[in-house]
Amino acid sequence: NAGVTQTPKFQVLKTGQSMTLQCAQDMNHNSMYWYRQDPGMGLRLIYYSASEGTTDKGEVPNGYNVSRLNKREFSLRLESAAPSQTSVYFCASTGRGLSEQFFGPGTRLTVL
Amino acid sequence: GQQVMQIPQYQHVQEGEDFTTYCNSSTTLSNIQWYKQRPGGHPVFLIQLVKSGEVKKQKRLTFQFGEAKKNSSLHITATQTTDVGTYFCAGPSGTYKYIFGTGTRLKVLA
User: What is the DSSP letter of A39?
Assistant: First the structure.
């Protein structure tokens, strides 16, 4: 099992460009999450999907959209990237409610 | 809103010294989780505590959940260079999501 996979690993964008970060899990988990990590700020939740077909905002949703494509895949889209969105993005999944979260390796995004 | 704070933000120790990080929540928690993130890596789950006053050990790591279920601690005995990384606590916020603490970055000097 690969666990949680994320693509791409690194990305550099110019201000105003758009892109989609992909996440997939092969553990048959119900819930999936997108976090961003900035120095000294810990992990902040952007969006989550409690189950297939549902998505909800987290702490910092502005400037992002998400799609729960199916049970395995949860994508994060930046429609018009801004330098403030330079960060490391982690996808995570969990099998049920408030249980252990499994994280992907992360995407390091730089917006110039 | 709900907040989860961790102290200290940074800690440098000599190899063999002990280390403790503290996690404090503004609200009572149903449970608390701890994660470790190695430099350049992703967070990895360590443990979940559920009961008031619970203490759990994993080799040199001791985790404690406060009696009021608003604070927690992680203590590492006799640190090793392999303990280097950032330690995060996380408390639930609602049914499906967690709030992470700001983390404590541990450096171990050989």
Answer: T
- Among chain B residues, the shortest Cα distance to A41 is held by B102
Choose among A33, A42, A92: nearest Cβ to B102. A42
B105 to chain A: closest CA residue: A40
Closest Cβ–Cβ partner in A31, A97, A103 for B43: A103
CA distance A90 to A94: 13
Lowest mean pLDDT among A22-36, A88-102, B80-94: A88-102
pLDDT band at B49, cuts 50/70/90?
very high
Strand locations in chain B, DSSP E?
4-7, 10-14, 19-25, 32-37, 44-49, 55-58, 61-65, 71-76, 85-92, 98-100, 104-109
Check if A93 contacts B (Cβ < 8 Å). Answer: no
Name chain A contacts of B92, Cβ cutoff 8 Å.
Answer: 98
Residue A40 reports pLDDT greater than 80: no
Q: If phi over 0 gives left and psi between -120 and 50 gives alpha, with beta otherwise, what is residue A2? A: alpha
